[in-house]
Queue: 3 jobs
Job 1
Amino acid sequence: MYDIIYRKREGEELTEKEIDFFIQEYTKGNIPDYQAAALLMAIFFRKMSDKETYYLTKAMMNSGRTVDLSKIDGIKVDKHSTGGVGDTTTLIVGPLVASCGVAVAKMSGRGLGHTGGTIDKLESIPGFCVELTIDQFIEAVNRIKIAVMSQSVDLAPADKKLYALRDTTATVENMSLIASSIMSKKLAAGADAIVLDVKFGSGAFMKEIEQAIELAKMMIHIGESAGKRTIALLSNMDQPLGYAVGNALEIKEAIGSLKNQGPEDLVDLCTYLASYMILLAKKAETIEEAFNMVHSKLLSGEAFEKFKEFVRFQGGDISVIDDTRKLPQAKYMEEVKAETNGYVQSIRAADIGSAALILGAGRERKESKIDLSAGVVLKKKVGDPVHYQETIAIIHTNQFEKIEQARKMILDSFTIVPFSVEKQKIVHGIISKNEIKIL
C-alpha cells in the first residue's frame, strides 16, 4: 500500500492490479483509513487517467454483489441523475418509458439531503413496498415493464466505505472519484444501457456547465468501456426543478405531470430522458420517433395508467393517485409573499432545498427521520412577473417553530428585478461517445 500511495503521489498511473488490491483489501478492512485517506488525497491532487478511473469503477462494482437481469425480456435501460432540488424525474420517466414497452428495472436509494430519495418519495404512498427480492423485482418488470426497489446494501460496498472517508477528508470533489462512485452502482445494478442526467448550476454539485461536461464525458467513457451504451443530458439546476420540493408534494406533482398537467421544465426534462432511454432500448430508430412515442403516451393517458399499475403491483393504495388529498398532509401551510414588484431573475435552488430540509423534508444523517408531508411549493419561477404581496411559495410543515426561518430563507433565495427576464431552458446539451451537442 505504501508503494501505491507513493506512486500516485508522484503522479504515476496505477495499474489495474494495484487498484484492485486497494479496493479489495480496504473493503475487507485490511487497509487502515489513514492509508486510504493518503491515497485519496494523492488522487485528489494528481488526478486519475480515464484508464485508472475505469479500473477503479470496475473494482468498486466487483466489491460486492452484482445483479443479473438477464431473465428480464428486452434491453434494460437505467437512468441516473446527479442530484438537485425537486428532482422527481424517476417517478415520471419510469412509467413513461414502461408504457412504451421498454423494461425499467430501477434500484434507488434513500436520500441524504434536502428531501428523501426516490424510495422515500414512493413511501409517501400508503402501502407501497420497496423491499422486493430480486425474483419479485424481475417478475414485476417482466409482467408490467417497471419496478423500483430499495438498493441492496451489498451493491458496491466499497463505494459506501470510500464515500464516508472522502466526506471526512475533504476529497469529495474529484471528478474520477465522483464518476466511479456513480457508475460503480449503475454497472452493478445490471442495466444494458444508461442515460445520465448531469446537472449544473447553483443547486447542483457541478456549478458550471464545463464541469458537468467533464463529468459526463468521464461517466460515458466508463459506461462504454464496460460495454454499456451510455448517453448524458446536461440539465440546468439554477432553480428547483418543477414547483414542488418535498416527498409527498413531489408525488403529487409527478401525478399531475403524468396527466400532462405538470410544470413545463419538469415535463420537458422527463420527455428528453424518456426519449433517449427508448432510443437506447432500440424501440425507436431515431430520437424524433422516440419523442413522438413519449408525447403520444402522455396525451393518451397511457403513461398515467402505467403509473397506477406500477403502484398497485407494489402494494400501494391507488385511491391516493386519483385523490392526492389522501397523501400525507402537513398541519401548517403558510404563504410566503413577495416584498416588491418586478420579475423573478433567479431562485437559488440550494436555499430552497435547505428550507425544505429545515421544515423536515430531508435527512442530514442516515438515522434522521423524514416528514413525508413537509416541503416547499413554489408559485413563481424565473421569468415570471411578481406583484407586491403576491404569493411566491407555500410552506408545508408540522413544525410551527420552523416557519419563520424557512420563510426568510425562501425570500432571500428569490432575486426580483424591475425589468423582464427570459425563462430558463432546462436541457442544455446531449453528450454521447462520439459527440458533444450543446443546444
Job 2
Amino acid sequence: MLYACNKLALVVLLFWFVFVTCSAFAQTETVLYTFTNETDGSYPSSVVVDSEGNVYGTTSNGGTYFYGNVFKITPSGVFTNLYSFTGESDGFAPFAGLAIDGQGNLYGTTAQGGDGGSGEGTVFELTPSGTKTILHNFSCPTDGCLPDATLTLDTQGNLYGTTLTGGANNYGGVFKVTSSGTFSLLYSFTVPTRDSTSSVVADSQGNVYGTTYNAGVGFGSVFKLTPSGDELTLHAFTPAHRDGFYPYAGPVLDASGNLRGTATSGGAVGVGVLFEVSPSGKETILHSFAGGADGIFPDSAVVFDNSGNLYGTTSYGGAFDLGTVYEVTSAGVEKILHSFASNKKDGNFPSVGVVLDKSGNLYGSTGQGGSSTACQGGCGIVYKIVP
C-alpha cells in the first residue's frame, strides 16, 4: 500500500511538473479592445505603450467626426478617445501609428488636411491630457505630400518621417522636424522608390536609415542618409540570391549599428524573410518563412528585446491563414506565438507590428476582424500577448 501511495504521489508530482513547465512556455492572447466604427473609430494602425502599460494608437476612420482619432486603452481595457480629428485645419486621415516620449507626449501625422489650404497633411503633438499642437503643415510638393508613415523620435527630441510623394522629384522624401519645431526636407528620392511609405530610424550621429520598396535594382533596398544629405544604398535586394525583396516596412537599429527588418517576398519559398544588414552593407538572412503555419508575407517592422530576440507579424499564414505573431530567437529559432482565428473574434490579417512593454508583454493591432459587425470584415482590435 505504501508503495502504491508513493507511486501515485510521484505520478501526481510529475503531472504537476509537466503542467507548470508547459504553462511557462505557453502564450496567452487577450483582446484588449474591439473597435465599433462609432466614436471609438475603426481600422487601428500600429500602437505604442507607456511605462504604465497604457496603449495608444490612431484610427484612420471613425471618431466623433469620422475623420479618425487618437485613442488610449488602459491595461484593463478601458477605452478613451483622446482626440477626434475634425477634417479641417487640424488634419485628418491619421494612417500611421504614433511615437511617444518620456513625458507621455504623442507624435503623429495626418496624411491630409491642415492649414496648408489644399489638404497636404500635418505633423502633430498631443499631450497626455489631449491638447493638440500642429508642429508642421505640409506644402506640396515642396515639403513632400502624404506623410503616412509612423514617425521616429531620437534622443534629442527630433522627429523623422517620410512622405509618399512630393519633394524635388515627386517621388517622396525623408523629412525632419526638430524639437523646436523647425522642418527640413532631408532628401528627395530621385527614382520611384515604393508603393507605400515606411518609417526610418536615426542613430546618435544623425544618420538616417530606411528601406525602399522597389528601388535599388527594382526589388527594394536598404539605404543610409548622412546628415549632409548624401544617400548611400547599403543593400539592394535581388531575388536570384534568395535574400528577399520588396521590404514594405522600415528597419530597426541595434546597439552595434546593424539594421534588422523584413522583406515581404522572396526567400527560400518566396513568402518573405527576416534580414540583417551590417553597417558595411553585408546582408544576413535571419529567417526565411516557409509558408503555411510558419507565416506568410512579413510586411511589418520588427522589435527586439534585451536578449536579442525579434518579434513581428505576418499578414497571412498561421494555423488559420489569417496571420501570426512570431518570435525569432537570437539563435535563429522561430516560434509562432499566436495564430489569428476569426472564430475567436481576435482580429485577422495583422499588417502592422508589435511593441514590447517593460515586462516583455507584446501589444499590437489588426485593422480587420473582431466581433463588431459595423465594418465589413470587422473594424479591428487591439490585443496583448503574455509570453
Job 3
Amino acid sequence: MIAEPILIFFLVWKLRKILQKFSVRPEWEKPLKLAMFALVTIFAAQLIFSLETITIWIWDVIILSLIAVIFKRKEFYAARNIVIAFLPLVIVSILTDIIKLLPDRVYDNYGGYLKFAFPFSIIWMIVMLIIFNKQKKALEKEHKKVQEQEEQKKIIASRKAELEVLVAERTSEIMQQKNELEQALIELRNTQSQLIQSEKMASLGTLTAGIAHEIQNPLNFVNNFSEVNTELIEELKGEKSKVKSERDEKLEDEILSNLSQNLEKILFHGKRADAIVKGMLEHSRINTGQKQPADINDLADEYLRLAYHGLRAKDKLFNAKLETDFDSTIGEINIVPQDIGRVLLNLFNNAFYAAMEKKKNLTGFQNLSGLNNYEPTVSVKTKKVDGKVKIHVKDNGIGIPQKVVDKIFQPFFTTKPTGQGTGLGLSLSYDIIKAHGGEINVETKEGEGSEFVIQLPG
C-alpha cells in the first residue's frame, strides 16, 4: 500500500519540525536526514523495480519502529497525538498485508472487514487531526498568553524595581527634607523664643524707664528739702549761739516750724519712693501664673504713667494728654497682675506710638498752614457691666488700616516699620487675655484713632 510511505514521510517530517521548533536533542537531526534519504531511495526502488512485495514489510517495520521511538523518547512527545490519529490506519494496513500472505479463503472471509474498517480509520485520522489541530492552536494560544503574562511579569518586575529605586530616592529626599524642616523648626522656635524675650525686654525697658522717672521726682523732693533743712538747721544754730538778749525767738519758732513741715514732706516723698520701689519689686517678681486679687484701676493708672514717663525718658520732645475715667465700684478682681500689666503696657505703648506718628505727620502741614491744634491724647476707662470688667484704651492717633485689622493679633504681624516692632506684643496680649477667660477687640478708623476694649471676668 502507498499509505505506509506517506505516513512514514509525514512522521519523519513532523519529527524534524518538532526538533527545529523546540531546539531539543540536535543529535537527532542527522539521523532523521539520513532516514528521509533512505525513505526516498526505497520508495524510488519500489516504483522502478516493482518491489512492492518486499518493501511492504520494510515500510511496516519502519513505521512500527517510528511509533516505538515516538512513544519511548520524551523529546518526541509532541508527535504522539499524530501517531494516535494514524494508529488505526497503520493497524488496518499491517493486518491487510498479513492477511494477503494467508490462503485466499481467509482473505475472502476477513478482507471485507478490513476494507470496511479502512474508511473508518481514515475518518478517525481526519477527525483526530482536526481535534489535535484545535488543541494545538488552543495550547499555542495558551502558551502565547502565558508568555505574554511572563513578559508582563518581567515588565512589572522591572518597573517595580525602578519604582523601588525611585521610592528609595524619594524617601531619602523626603527624610532629608524632614530633617531640614525639623532643624528649621528648631531654629524658628529658638528665634521665636528670642523674639518673645526681646519683646519682654522691650516692655521691661519701658517699665524701667518709667519707674526711674517716677522715683526721680520724690528723690528730688527729698534731696531739695534735705538741703533746705540743712540750711535751716545752720541758721537755727547761728541764732542759738547768740546771747539770749539778741536771739529772735519768733525766728527760731518759724525755723523749727519750717523744719517740721519739711520733714513731713521728706517723709511723704520717702514713702512715695518706697511705694514705687515696692511696685517695681512686684513687677520684677517671677511670674508664677497664679491669679490673685488686684485693683484693676490702680494697675491701669500705674502702667499708664509708667508707659508715658518711659517714652518721655526716650524722647524729651514727646508729650501727650492723659485722660482717665475709672469705675470705683469694680474693686479687686482675680488676675495675674504681671500678665495684665504687660497687656496694658503694650496697649499704652501702641497708643502713644500712634499719637506720636500722627503728630510727626501733621508737623509739616501745621507749620505751613499755621495750624497747631492737634494734641496727642490717650485715655483709659474702666467700667463694670453685667458682671464683666471692661477696660477701654483709646487714642487719637493714626489708626489702623481696615485691610489689616483682622491680622493685628497674628504672631509676627506689625504695622510698624522694620526694626521698630517684633509683631508679638498684641499676639501675646491676645493669648494672655484668652487665658484669663476674657476677650480683646479693637475699633479703629484710619487717620482718626483706635480703641482697644478688654473684657475680663468680674
